[in-house]
Design a protein that fits this description.
The complex is a heterodimer of chains A (421) and B (149). With 421 residues, chain A is α/β, with parallel strands linked by helices. Chain A contains 15 helices and 17 strands. Chain B has one domain: Sufe protein. Chain: A (Alpha-Beta Complex). Chains A and B meet through helix 13 of A and helix 1 and helix 2 of B. The structure holds pyridoxal-5'-phosphate (PLP).
């Protein structure tokens, strides 16, 4: 208890020194008004905003470097290739991969998971095998596995959770067995905010020799991730949720596994040689990057990581945690508001419902006051069913949000309740 | 908040709280299910059609205030109408909420349904207001499932 309190104090101290106004100045989009009110952007779990330096890196590429990569002997193609591969090096350091060839550029977490489903799943999973996912997955980490199970006659097993939105780890241990061929779970739930104890979960799976895919869409932007320390086998995330443009993303895979896997898509750049009789595939990472990728976006992802490093990732995380704590306190204090997802370990996401008021009505009224939240099922319909709600409203925070914005949110929620009373 | 008070008028809030004809209709000979995948709004419209007229109509389901109130008032408006009149009302309602019909200056049968005109200022909510109408239309025409996507 004493240590928890100490770290909480430390966190508060760190949060207190965070110069949020200076940070906000880096994000041009935040300067606007919506419906005559200052924009209060609390939909970061869906897509986060892009800082000026990332925008500038993207335009610099388009103005000075644009060309196809890996293909030209000419000057521009070399510049583009250098910038693109430079971003891969940055990603490698960001997640502490052993090698940059383990970092495959994809369109986002969804494509990353589908890549593993096709490349690993379709090759190594067969009838009667089992795939374990959790009760709090995004559709992106449910549907591909369902499709695979359907195709192969394999079985999908689901780790249940308690009413706080925490996975039942004993049940998980019980699900693991000789037939298990893959575990696929999210690090942080986008609908509940729960941080799952993935390191221990990975260790358990490895006792059975089972590889683990981590859906890191919500953790990469808000936590320090070290894939070697976690010892995860795959880790997928999206650039647009971490201050980079859409179309950028990464799936990390251990080289040994990626080498054994089937390619994902076929086409240019993923081959060594092609004849009508036989194609030899390229080495990593190109084997998984068929066709011309989103070059400008991936370079932008590299720039976004540089930005995160420059502002201090730990301090940013501590500040966000303090915001979440404050928002939880404010919203729990409003009669009629119920928070969905009350796990002990949470990051950046606050889902809530109000008695008798549908989330879409909440979302519309908040929007009139310039507040952007997500209202709906958050691509996690099974989570809604588990908590027996049709939808929730979700405020999700980034390090550029402020306590004042949380106050605006809380006050407007009170107004919503008044309108419907 | 003026556009907002246009949208959430007392009548709408009242129908949301106490939806009319909110039940399963045992005598129904037509029904359809409507679903808005974006919001998760889901409702079933039941019709008892006799001699091409709507003798009884009811609905069940869950959704936001706009979709519930729209469904509730739709059942009141359509009850007793001929199939043709119901279809015409559907068209007028749809044109009003999408901004194609100037309900104040053209001849129409919308009556108190005009309070939904405020929805057109909220493009993402148009589907909420029209879901029940689409579903009623589907039930009239023997389709069983509609989706607003
Ligand atoms: C936990 C989680 N997984 C996967 C995804 C899918 O990400 P994307 O749509 O960027 O592929 C999301 C985004 O909503 C998410 O929150």
């Amino acid at each position: 208890m004493a240590t928890i309190e100490k770290s909480l104090t430390e966190e508060k101290e760190q949060a207190a020194t965070w110069d949020v106004e200076r940070i906000r100045a880096d994000f041009p989009v935040l300067r606007q008004t919506v419906n005559g009110k200052p924009l209060v952007y609390l939909d970061n779990a869906a897509s986060s905003q892009v800082p000026q330096v990332v925008i500038e890196r993207g335009s610099m590429y388009l103005e000075q470097e644009h060309s196809n990569i890996h293909r030209g002997v000419h000057y521009l193609s070399q510049k583009a290739t250098t910038a693109y591969e430079g971003a891969r090096e940055t990603v490698k350091r960001f997640i502490n991969a052993r090698g940059s060839k383990e970092c495959i550029f994809v369109r986002g977490a969804t494509e990353g998971i589908n890549l593993v489903m096709h490349g690993y799943g379709r090759k190594f999973i067969s009838a009667e095998d089992e795939i374990i996912i959790s009760a709090m997955e995004h559709h992106a980490n449910i549907v591909p596995w369902q499709m695979l199970c359907e195709e192969k006659g394999a079985r999908l097993r689901v780790i249940p959770m308690n009413d706080a939105g925490e996975l039942l780890l004993d049940e998980y241990e019980g699900l693991l067995n000789e037939r298990t061929k893959l575990v696929a779970v999210n690090h942080v739930s986008n609908a509940l905010g729960t941080i799952n104890p993935i390191k221990a979960m990975i260790e358990s799976a490895h006792k059975y020799g089972v590889p683990v895919l981590i859906d890191g869409a919500q953790s990469a932007p808000h936590m320090i991730v070290d894939v070697q320390d976690l010892d995860c086998d795959f880790y997928a995330f999206s650039g647009h949720k971490m201050f980079a443009p859409t179309g950028s993303g990464v799936v990390y895979g251990k080289a040994r596994l990626l080498e054994q896997m089937n390619p994902f898509q076929g086409g240019g750049d993923m081959i060594k040689s092609v004849t009508f009789e036989k194609t030899t595939f390229a080495d990593l990472p190109n084997k998984f990057e068929a066709g011309t990728p989103a070059i400008a976006s991936q370079i932008g992802l590299g720039a976004a990581i540089d930005y995160l490093n420059s502002i201090g990732r730990e301090q940013a995380a501590a500040y966000e945690h303090e915001l979440l704590r404050y928002a939880t306190e404010r919203l729990s204090g409003i009669e009629g508001v119920r928070i969905i997802g009350t796990a002990r370990e949470k990051a950046s996401v606050l889902s809530f419902v109000i008695d008798e008021i549908h989330a879409h009505d909440i979302g519309t009224i908040l929007d009139q006051e310039g507040i952007a939240v997500r209202a709906g099922h958050h691509c996690a319909q099974p989570v809604m069913q588990r908590f027996n709600v049709p939808a929730t409203a979700r405020a999700s925070f980034a390090f550029y949000n402020t306590k004042e914005e949380v106050d605006v949110l809380a006050n407007t929620i009170e107004k919503v309740i008044e309108i419907f009373s | 908040m003026s556009e907002l008070s246009e949208l959430y008028q007392q009548v709408i809030l009242d129908h949301n709280k106490k939806p009319r004809n909110f039940r399963k209709l045992e005598t129904a000979n037509h029904s359809a299910e409507g679903y808005n995948p974006l919001c998760g709004d889901q409702l079933t419209v039941y019709l008892h059609l006799e001699d091409d007229a709507v003798r009884e109509i009811s609905f069940e389901g869950s959704g936001c205030a706009i979709s519930k109130a729209a469904a509730s008032m739709m059942t009141q408006a359509v009850k007793g109408k001929s199939k043709h009149e119901a279809e015409q009302l559907f068209t007028e309602f749809h044109r009003m909420v999408t901004g194609e019909l100037d309900e104040e200056n053209t001849q129409n049968a919308l009556g108190n349904l005009k309070i939904f005109s405020g929805v057109r200022e909220f493009p993402v909510r148009i589907k909420c207001a029209s879901l029940a109408w689409h579903t009623m239309h589907a039930a009239l025409n023997n389709q069983e499932l509609v989706s607003t996507e």
